[in-house]
Amino acid sequence: MKILVTGGAGFIGSALIRHLILATSHAVVNVDKLTYAGNLESLAPVADDPRYAFEHLDICDAAGLDRAFARHRPDAVMHLAAESHVDRSIDGPAAFVQTNVVGTYTLLEAARRHWNTLDEQGRGRFRFHHISTDEVYGDLAGTDDLFTEATAYAPSSPYSASKAGSDHLVRAWHRTYGLPALVTNCSNNYGPCHFPEKLIPLVILNALEGKPLPVYGQGLQIRDWLYVEDHARALLRVVEAGAPGDTYNIGGHNEQRNIDVVRAICELLEELAPDHPAGVARYRDLIVHVADRPGHDLRYAIDAGKIERELGWTPRETFASGLRKTVQWYLGHRDWCRRVQDGSYQRQRLGLGAAAADRTASA
Fold first, then answer.
1. Strand order in 222-227's β-sheet?
2. Which of 33, 121, 154, 346 could be bridged to 58 by S-S, CB 3.0 to 4.6 A?
3. Cβ(261)–Cβ(215) under 8 Å?
């Protein structure tokens, strides 16, 4: 297939594109606005592959999307472009509504226009795969409860509410217009190339620099952690074999309290980076508890039984193995981290994006 991936310069999107190019014969069109969270350096291993193309484009730009669909004629859309940081959504919700709701609507309409130009075989083959989050379900009261595909939506933050809205739009376009759409809701991702505002990379990098390791409240919030490369394999499986109109929950079977995640990172750093920053005796001494986030959900946990039964996907990484790989990646890519932290990646990404766009145009 030729797959149009939105948000392909982001954390999950770049992992998906690396998997598609390096492990399959599919072609990829990466549509990305290159906001602060977009980093084309994360796509360096595949950037020169002839099966990869880049479109520097906002998903709210209907005319631009129409041009991209006409130029590339994709067989599938995998929609990951989104504003995704809960704290940012609390401080500035408008961008989340614009990108996650209006952008998804605009993309759905562009995809529908493209789909209507296809012959009968092409229309039957086409897929619109919307990648969402378990945060749309709210939080779980019981210690043994799990989110299933039938769990009622109860979003708590502007971020999760905007993602819930986009989920509903996708399902409505399937039911009303027949667009062959699928939705996946995933648990917390972690792994290489994660933007350092998120918990795991923030803790790793702060610890290496001797900075405080902030933990909301007592750190008792529980999340199900999914290694990003496992997620990429699951997404591919869904777009290739999932049933249009269906929803699939994707989880890592790795429930952890936030405080235990932070402590596990500290223990790995004691082993893998034993030379502490000046004035630091133990990495865990850097842990500080800060005021909790407003409306902070206590527990998320995914029942991934459906995708396992119907599509044969299971995660390969345990939390211990995935976290070790993640810490090792950050230790081995300090230049990537430095460029993100000092902002220089933003200047580089524009140059990389222009070069990639020139190649796409000439092709």
1. 188-190, 222-227, 255-257
2. 33
3. no
Instruction: State the catalytic residue, choosing from 41, 58, 135, 224.
Output: 135
3-state SS of 220-276?
CCEEEEEEHHHHHHHHHHHHHHCCCCCEEEECCCCEEEHHHHHHHHHHHHHHHCCCC
What's the burial of 153, exposed, middle or buried (CB within 10 Å: 0-12/13-18/19+)? middle
Q: What is the pLDDT of residues 260-311, one digit of tens each?
A: 999 999 999 999 999 999 999 999 999 999 998 888 888 889 999 999 999 9
CA dihedral 21, 25, 27, 28 (to 10 degrees): -30
The yes-or-no answer on residue 271 being catalytic is no
pLDDT band at 341 (very low <50, low <70, confident <90, very high): confident
**Residue among 302, 211, 296, 303 nearest 258 (CA):** 296
Does the active-site annotation cover 335?
A: no
Q: What is the pTM of this model?
A: 0.93
Q: What is the pLDDT of residue 348?
A: 60
Of 159, 227, 300, 330, catalytic: 159
Exactly one of 58, 134, 139, 317 is catalytic; which is it? Answer: 134
Has residue 206 got a pLDDT over 90?
A: yes
Comparison of pLDDT for 145 and 307, the residue scoring more: 307
Cα 84 to Cα 60: distance, rounded to the nearest angstrom: 16
Rama region for 145: left / alpha / beta (φ>0; ψ in -120 to 50; rest): beta
- Number of other residues whose CB lies within 10 A of the CB of residue 348: 13
